[in-house]
Amino acid sequence: MNKGTIKQILLITDGCSNQGEDPAAMAALAKEHGIVVNVIGVMENYETDDRGMKEIDNIASAGGGVSQVVQTKQLSQTVQMVTRQAMTQTIKGVVNQELQDILGDSQSMEDLPPEKRGRVMEVVDDLGETVNLEVCILVDTSASMKTKLPTVREALLDLSISLTSRMGENQFCLYTFPGKRKATSKIMSWTPKIDHISQVFSKLASGGVTPTGPAIRDVIKSFSTSSRRHLISHDDEAYDDGPRY
Amino acid sequence: MTMKPMMMDQDIKLHPGTRIYGKWHKKTYQIMRHLGSGAQGTVYLAHSNQGEVAIKFSKDPSSLISEVNILKRFVALQGDPLGPYLYDVDDWVTNKGTINFYVMERIKGVTLDDSIRHKGFEWVYVFILQLLKDLSRLHELGFVFGDLKPENLMITESNYRIRCLDFGGTTQLGHSIKEYTEFFDRGYWGMGTRKAEPSYDLFAVMMIFIYAAERRRFNKTEHPRDQLIQKIKTNPKLKPFEKILLKALAGQFHHANDMRQAFLYKMNETNRIESRITRRRTATSPSKKRYQKKKTVSGWIGASVWAVVIIALYVMYTVLYVM
Question: Where does the VWFA domain start and stop, copy by copy (chain A) (predicted)?
Answer without folding.
Answer: 1-91
